Amino acid sequence: MSVLVYINSENGKVAKNALEVITYGKKIGDVVVVTNGSTDNATLESLGAYGASKVLVDRAFEGADAQQVTRLVAKAAESTGATTIIFSNDLIGKAVAPRLSVRLKAGLVAGAIDTPDADGNIKVNVFSGKAFGNVKVNSEMRIIALLPNSFQPEEVGGTASVEEFNGEAGTAAVTVKATKKPEGSIPLPEAELVVSAGRGLKGPENWGIVETLAQELGAATACSRPVSDIGWRPHHEHVGQTGVAIRPNLYIAAGISGAIQHLAGVNGSKTIVVINTDEEAPFFKAADYGIVGDAFEVLPRLTEAVKKFKAAN
Amino acid sequence: MKILVCISKAPDTTSKIAFVEGNTKFDESGVQYIVNPYDEWYALVRGLELKESLGGTVTTVTVGTASDDATIRKALAIGADDAVRIDTEAKDAFQVAAEIAAYAKEQGFDLILTGKETINYNGSQVGGMIAEHLDLPFVSLATKLDVNGTTASLEKEIVGGSQEVEAQLPVVVSCSKGMAEQRIPNMRGIMAARTKPLNVVAASNPEQLTGFVSYELPAPKAAVKMIDPENMDELVALLHNEAKVI
Ligand SMILES: Cc1cc2nc3c(=O)[nH]c(=O)nc-3n(C[C@H](O)[C@H](O)[C@H](O)COP(=O)(O)OP(=O)(O)OC[C@H]3O[C@@H](n4cnc5c(N)ncnc54)[C@H](O)[C@@H]3O)c2cc1C
Ligand SMILES: Nc1ncnc2c1ncn2[C@@H]1O[C@H](COP(=O)(O)O)[C@@H](O)[C@H]1O
After folding, report:
1. Interface confidence (ipTM) of the complex
2. Which listed site, A160, B25, B178, B236, has its alpha carbon 20 to 30 Å from B16?
3. Is A115 helix (H, G, I), strand (E, B) or coil?
4. Which ligand lies nearest to the CA atom of residue B123 in the structure?
5. Do B239 and A273 touch (CB under 8 A)?
6. Total structural domains in chain A?
7. Using an 8 Å Cβ cutoff, are A175 and B167 in contact?
């Protein structure tokens, strides 16, 4: 059975979540990747290492306009006969997969965290990570949008054949005027390690100790909602129910009480470390490791310990 | 300008999440419903701001049963002019979007706003589906929205940053944080909401492509391991050897 996997390869680079969806697709069937843009053939062939047998590339357009990508993937589905189509449930998947679902009358499973079970049901996160639901697809075709960081890329060896493909994607109705990407910083949704702080840090001038630890770890920085609401930190750092939902391998939270709405955005993290002066802080109940202490002392101490560890390893 | 805002209800964020009937149904006992925060704080309020500066109307639409009326009245109290309820129990995003698209098709809305996602099922699906049904451009996860003549100028989140984009009306937009500030309804708004039109229209009953067959709660977390604040070397060692995350 052939499955179609859409990936977006910007600036010729393939992001980790693209490898995740290829690995995921390989568990279901023979993987044909469809993509667009100017990524070179060697990079596309190397997707074979993760299980892609063929890559269809439409060189006619760059970027990820939702209408163009929808037309491209629909066309690729028609020409491959694939009945399962897979996206990463990242910002591109969230814009494209729903459109494609309507176009193809294909049931969409958004936020999948596991492969289909014996009955074909697929597990997804619901209630902001507080529960799981098992989704059944009634239609003949199905679209699965995989939650980033819920499936690790696996190398299986091999190279993929690359074919030029005309997806008849047409023109974009939404025009891009400017793109802003802060240089150097790690985008929060992709980060495997995250250092986060809340109102316990008392003011924006104190964030140096958070940033230093993040730098030392190679981590992204995040914050609680009140901290971004009062302008101590930029909005894109706000995690939680109404902010970004993340599931890094390590989430370090300093001076955050652990309100249920905050937890909703971080409880998918593999390991949680909580630093709080109040031993009654609710966050400790959700933590793997807890430190009752003053963030102003503990964070610098932790930075030193990480330095020492890195020097010794 | 004619603005349509899609409003759904969601369990209050502090609700206890439990399931009944052999884990096939969400346990609604004792659950308080609120307007889905993204719909209320961002989509509705920005819609109202645009109406206030450019003129026009703000209509809300909800796919739901009479049990949704209380949350719909809340949206009216915040300032929407009128509300439409498409009378059916919403089963999946595809059905919701098909119902809204069928209603909106002949109405000539310039802007259709949704929230970023519902906080119970977190699909982030309905907006894009409506757009495809109506063959309109869709700007997902917008953090800013302005309208100049027939052009919408927006800022949206992209992986690792943001983008400024433009599209010609009509356009479908899903609204994320940054779009507007929450508005608390005042007494006058609440009184006025009682008499504003809430039109119940019949559903077109499209097919249901997906459905939840069961739910599970996550396994309880192992007890937290407390670490001496003086001994961060121990924490680093545990993160390396036990948790294997660094
Ligand atoms: C509908 C809704 C949606 C929401 N969405 C979100 C969301 O997405 N994300 C979010 O974060 N919040 C959200 N909130 C807000 C949430 O309820 C909490 O108010 C918020 O998370 C609290 O932020 P905080 O932990 O930084 O601050 P506080 O609750 O004030 O906690 C500060 C903590 O710091 C500790 N502390 C103080 N000094 C120190 C020190 N020197 N060292 C170490 N610890 C110290 C204190 O003991 C305390 O636990 C939402 C609320 C609602 C109603
Ligand atoms: N039953 C509903 N009635 C009206 N609008 C809805 C309904 N369900 C979802 N929406 C809208 O679609 C958005 C995205 O929902 P979802 O795709 O479920 O995450 C929500 O923020 C609402 O604006």
Report:
1. 0.90
2. B178
3. coil
4. 2
5. yes
6. 2
7. yes
pLDDT of A196 reads 98
Mean pLDDT of all residues in A117-134: 91
Q: Can you tell me the distance from the alpha carbon of B51 to that of B239, in angstroms, rounded to the nearest whole number?
A: 53
Ligand 1 center to A227 CA (angstroms): 8
Element (H, E) at A215: helix A208-217
Q: What is the pLDDT of residue B169?
A: 97
A305–B contact, CB cutoff 8 A: yes
Q: What gap in Å lies between CA A254 and CA B224, rounded to an integer?
A: 16
Cα–Cα distance, A27 to A31 (Å, whole number) = 9
Q: Does A178 touch chain B (CB under 8 A)?
A: yes
Which residues have C-beta within 8 Å of that of residue B245, sequence separation ≥ 6? Answer: A192, A193, A249, A250, A270, A271, B239
Same domain, yes or no, for A8 and A117? yes
In this structure, the answer to whether residues A95 and A142 fall within a common structural domain is yes
Helix/strand/coil for B138: strand
- For the segment B126-155, what is each residue's pLDDT rounded down to a tens digit? 999 999 999 999 999 999 999 999 999 999
Give the domain-ending residue among A101, A131, A164.
A164
Sign of CA dihedral A224, A269, A187, A97: negative
Best CA proximity match to A118, nearest among B213, B56, B180: B213
Quote the domain boundaries for residue A220.
188-312
Is residue A169 one of the residues assigned to a domain? no
Final residue in a domain of this structure, among A100, A132, A164? A164
Domains recognised in chain B with CATH numbers: 2-216 (3.40.50.620)
- Domain of A151, CATH number, reads 3.40.50.620
Q: Is residue A211 part of a domain?
A: yes
Indicate whether A238 and A294 sit together in one domain. yes
Interface test with B, best of A9, A65, A91 (most B CBs within 10 A): A91
Q: Tell me, yes or no, if A170 comes closer than 8 A to chain B by beta carbon.
A: no
Residues 28-87 of A with CB under 8 A from B: 66-67, 70
> Rounded to an integer, what distance in angstroms lies between the CA atom of residue A63 and that of residue A160?
22
Q: How far apart are CA A122 and CA A134, in angstroms?
A: 5
What mean pLDDT value characterizes chain A? 94
Q: What pairing do the DSSP bridges indicate for beta strands A131-137 and B210-216?
A: antiparallel
Q: Are B62 and B6 in contact (CB under 8 A)?
A: yes
Pocket lining for ligand 1, CB < 6 angstroms: A 198-200, 224-227, 240-243, 254-257, 259, 261-262, 265, 275-278, 281, 294-296; B 13, 37
Whether residue A6 lies inside any domain: the answer is yes
The answer on A228 and A87 residing in a single domain is: no
Is the Cα dihedral A12, A17, A23, A27 positive or negative?
negative
Same domain, A153 and A231: no
CA–centroid distance, residue B12 to ligand 2 (Å): 16
The reply to whether A181 falls in a domain is: no
